[in-house]
Hints:
CATH architecture of the largest domain: Sandwich
Number of helices: 1
Radius of gyration: 22 Å
CATH topology of the largest domain: Immunoglobulin-like
Order of helices and strands: HEEEEEEEE
CATH class of the largest domain: Mainly Beta
Distance between the termini: 64 Å
Largest sheet: 4 strands, mixed
Strand order of the largest sheet: 4-1-7-8
Amino acid sequence: xxxxxxxxxxxxxxxxxxxxxxxxxxxxxxxxxxxxxxxxxxxxxxxxxxxxxxxxxxxxxxxxxxxxxxxxxxxxxxxxxxxxxxxxxxxxxxxxxxxxxxxxxxxxxxxxxxxxxxxxxxxxxxxxxx
Length: 130
């Protein structure tokens, strides 16, 4: 029969091995995401980082160019210029629209979240350039 101290030793060994295996499984796994994206030659990139949880359709100058699932992002390469961007939730009445600059060789990032003012009909969107 195994004593309590021997069982504790076995549990410690088991958890140590499990911890090492977890560390090894994560080693080398680095999701660079969109920050390492390089726009195609002569273009800039529009990135929709959907942190809202909604499924969103993305329209650029009235044309649907992408769909973005909640918690995901989508990259659209565009010629440099000024575009009307509309984000429309697929299953709720939430939306966003604004004019966005696309800069050559740069990322234009739209960080999309549900309205912080608890306004069901709008997204809070922060635009940054990388």
